[in-house]
Amino acid sequence: MSNFNVDSFTSKLKQGGALGSLFECELTGSKGTEAMTAIGDFKFMCKGVTFPASTIEAATVTYMGRPLQIPGNRAAATLTTEIYNDEKMEIRNHIESWMERLNSHKTNKRQAGFEAINSYTGTMKVSQLSKVGTATTKSYEFIDVWPSSSGEITLSWDTNDIQTFSVTWEFSYWKSRQSNVGFS
């Protein structure tokens, strides 16, 4: 039988638990000449990040009519950010320009010079911060990120809220020192 004891629970919740609002998101290595200002501001304008789930798909192998599940390949995932829009729309403009160079609306072609994967991708680092604000408790690096979708922005006379938009990012893999994943 379970013994309900608040002190037992709170003793396991080290430092009061991680807060979802204490994070920082940096984008580096993105492409284009206008990148420096827009990407430097990304750390401050990135309102939220949704980490992708980590999934290994099951592969079915049949032996004498019995299906057995064995670990298969890691499923592809996406990373999503929610970004505040400033009046000059610098980050939005940068993302749209990056996507245009990946595949033009008009010509359906990639910009010359965007052939090798490192010529059109960047790196995104997401850090969970401690409540003291001086330490990173966990960080992830998403390697070879590129924007695959830039979300809608709704305009309406009914609101005074600051605009936000989402960006979906594709990536090759992620790594984290704290999990000892991706570092060899």
Can you characterise this structure?
This protein has 4 helices and 9 strands. With 184 residues, the protein is α+β, with helices and mostly antiparallel strands. The protein has one domain: Pnp Oxidase, Chain A, CATH 2.30.110. The radius of gyration is 21 Å and the shape is globular.
For this entry, give a set of tags.
single chain; 184 residues; alpha+beta; Pnp Oxidase, Chain A; 7-stranded antiparallel sheet; 4 helices; 36% strand; globular
Which structural class do you get from the secondary structure elements? alpha+beta
Q: Tell me the fraction of residues in β-strands, as a range.
A: 35-45%
Overall outline: globular
Series of H and E elements? HEHEEEEHHEEEE
Count of DSSP E strands? 9
Query: Which topology does CATH recognise?
Result: Pnp Oxidase, Chain A
- Top-tier CATH class: Mainly Beta
Helical content band: 10-25%
Number of helices: 4
Describe the main β-sheet briefly: 7 strands, antiparallel
Q: N- to C-terminal separation?
A: 45 Å
Average pLDDT, all residues:
87
Low-confidence stretches: none
Topology summary:
Blueprint: H1 6-12, E1 23-28, H2 35-45, E2 46-50, E3 56-63, E4 66-74, E5 79-84, H3 90-102, H4 117-120, E6 122-129, E7 136-150, E8 164-170, E9 173-175
Antiparallel strand pairs: 1-6, 2-5, 3-4, 5-8, 6-7, 7-8, 7-9
